[in-house]
């Protein structure tokens, strides 16, 4: 292993250790509402800040080199495997309850179409052209990335759109979900419904959302994790088919409808 890779691994462990020492922080907003900031959120923030150009000097510059970034991205799936195994073990004791609610889990998968129905018109209003196709087909995870790269290539406007969303989701997705899920729980949504909604096809986003919910509802911790894990698994599996047979045709129709007067 190259020395720069070793530096990167040590750097990652140091960031994780600092984030775990800080722990879960609750920021009260008003009398009843509080935002939950997880160690994962701190780890993302620290690595983002240290990656800013003014701070990339000396050994930090070596850690954030293009070669290291490509290496980290390539082996990210290996790092996620123990997490997925842990969630799989969590699903098993709750399997009977999950199966009994099977139709609900399947129905909520239709929510994946929200990126097209809601996001595409907004993207076009903001001035995006073909990039809107890449960045509104889904949450920009691996499934959408593979589909867009195969159909349009990543050098196309559609490819730039999905890559931009992938990067934004990686940087800010977990932070957003860790803040947003507890807020919705105070509005009145049940923790079970929010746990199911946490399974958006992204391991980091699901982990952030379900962990934040668990910190607010510790007595439902195992159920929340099981629901979120099962939902995430379904989204990863069924999401490919809903993208191919529902989201992509709907997006194509809406894009032509919304841009029919645009000659550019």
Automatic annotation (TrEMBL):
It comes from the Bacteria. The keyword Membrane applies. The keyword Transmembrane applies. The chain crosses the membrane at residues 5-27, 33-52, 72-90, 110-128, 163-189, 238-258. Keywords: Membrane, Transmembrane, Transmembrane helix. Signal peptide: none annotated. It holds the Pfam family DUF3100. This is DUF3100 domain-containing protein. It comes from Sebaldella termitidis (strain ATCC 33386 / NCTC 11300).
């Amino acid at each position: 292993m190259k020395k720069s890779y070793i530096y990167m691994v040590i750097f990652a462990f140091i960031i994780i250790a600092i984030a775990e020492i800080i722990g879960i922080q609750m920021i009260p907003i008003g009398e009843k509402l509080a935002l939950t900031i997880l160690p994962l959120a701190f780890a993302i923030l620290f690595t983002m800040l240290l990656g800013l150009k003014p701070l990339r000097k000396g050994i930090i510059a070596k850690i954030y080199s293009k070669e290291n970034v490509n290496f980290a991205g390539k082996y990210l799936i290996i790092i996620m495997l123990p997490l997925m195994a842990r969630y799989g073990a969590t699903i098993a004791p709750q399997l009977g309850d999950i199966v009994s609610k099977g139709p609900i889990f399947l129905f909520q998968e239709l929510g994946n179409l929200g990126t097209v129905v809601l996001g595409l018109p907004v993207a076009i209003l903001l001035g995006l052209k073909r990039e809107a196709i890449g960045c509104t087909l889904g949450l920009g995870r691996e499934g959408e990335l593979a589909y867009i790269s195969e159909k349009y290539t990543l050098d196309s406007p559609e490819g730039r759109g999905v890559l931009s969303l992938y990067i934004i989701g990686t940087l800010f997705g977990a932070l957003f979900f860790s803040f947003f899920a507890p807020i919705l729980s105070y509005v009145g949504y049940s923790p079970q419904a929010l746990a199911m909604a946490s399974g958006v096809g992204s391991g980091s986003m699901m982990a952030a959302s379900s962990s934040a919910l668990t910190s607010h509802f510790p007595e439902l911790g195992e159920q929340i994790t099981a629901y979120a894990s099962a939902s995430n698994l379904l989204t990863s599996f069924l999401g490919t088919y809903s993208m191919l047979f529902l989201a992509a045709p709907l997006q194509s129709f809406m894009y032509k409808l919304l841009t029919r007067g645009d000659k550019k």
